[in-house]
């Protein structure tokens, strides 16, 4: 396993830390996910968004969503259908707006 070091402006680092906290992610998991997806898809493949502060999910709901994803990841045998998972996540995210 290799270690990388990234230099960021203090305000960028702090803002990233806050946003990832709202998403229930660590900086390490963010960079690992981003890198693996970019390598698999051979492009910068996705847009990751955090809810605006006034739209943020309660911490309990964020943890439940993270735990569902983690159970899915750990139970996956073989390749996940990322398009299907993305569609399901999008549907769940916007179900109250339809």
From TrEMBL:
<dbReference type="GO" id="GO:0006355">
    <property type="term" value="P:regulation of DNA-templated transcription"/>
</dbReference>
<dbReference type="InterPro" id="IPR013321">
    <property type="entry name" value="Arc_rbn_hlx_hlx"/>
</dbReference>
<protein>
    <submittedName>
        <fullName>Antitoxin component of RelBE/YafQ-DinJ toxin-antitoxin module</fullName>
    </submittedName>
</protein>
């Amino acid at each position: 396993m290799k270690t990388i070091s990234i230099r960021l402006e203090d305000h960028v680092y702090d803002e990233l830390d806050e946003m990832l906290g709202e998403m229930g992610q660590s900086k390490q998991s963010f960079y690992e996910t981003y890198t693996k997806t970019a390598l698999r898809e051979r492009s910068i493949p996705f847009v990751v968004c955090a809810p605006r502060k006034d739209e943020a999910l309660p911490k309990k709901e964020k943890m439940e969503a993270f735990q569902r994803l983690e159970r899915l990841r750990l139970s996956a045998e073989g390749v996940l259908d990322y398009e299907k998972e993305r569609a399901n996540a999008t549907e769940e995210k916007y179900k109250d707006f339809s």
